[in-house]
Amino acid sequence: MKHNLSHYFRTPLFFSTSLLLVLAMAGCSATTSPTGTTETESSMVAMVNGFDWSSTVIPPDISGGASATMDGTGALTVTGTSTSHGSIALVLLHPHVGLDTLGIGSSGSYISEDNHAYLTVGQNQGIVNLTTFDPVHHLASGTFYFTAQRTDSAANPATTQVTNGSFFNVEWKAQ
Fold first, then answer.
1. What's the number of domains the chain is made of?
2. What residue ranges in the chain does DSSP mark as E strands?
3. C-alpha to C-alpha distance for 1 and 23, rounded to whole angstroms
4. Predicted TM-score (pTM) of this structure
5. Does residue 169 lie in a domain region?
6. Which domain holds residue 86?
7. How confident is the model at residue 23 (pLDDT cuts 50, 70, 90)?
């Protein structure tokens, strides 16, 4: 007796099982070390106003939810995206291993899940500490924190605190 598998692939059971598998895999979060820094390749984690935030990991090993670009002037932008909790972006005008102050020039921003924009404004609004900056393999890792002001209206909350942030082995692409 021969089985016709093409019929099985068109059944509601096959479709719903496949959909559940895809949804289960798409919603993973980055893992963190005991010190709170991320250990997931190409990922970003932080606390936003005291709540856990994590870039959305797309398995298997497709993306940790963070990406980076380097423009023609050498400025590095690292962005982490969460499917349900907005995004965080760091712009470093002169990236190097060590501390970089956010505010004037280099900046940090947060876009909330309901699309409210927050940006570091003024001097000394936060710090990025690049622990890895590899120009050969185009990888960056580091920690960060910042206070950002709401830029799209005067509504509350007027500021957002992003603390305990880290990103790990985020590969950048040249623009």
1. 1
2. 28-29, 43-48, 51-54, 56-57, 66-70, 76-82, 86-92, 98-102, 107-111, 117-119, 126-134, 139-150, 159-174
3. 35
4. 0.77
5. yes
6. 28-174
7. very low
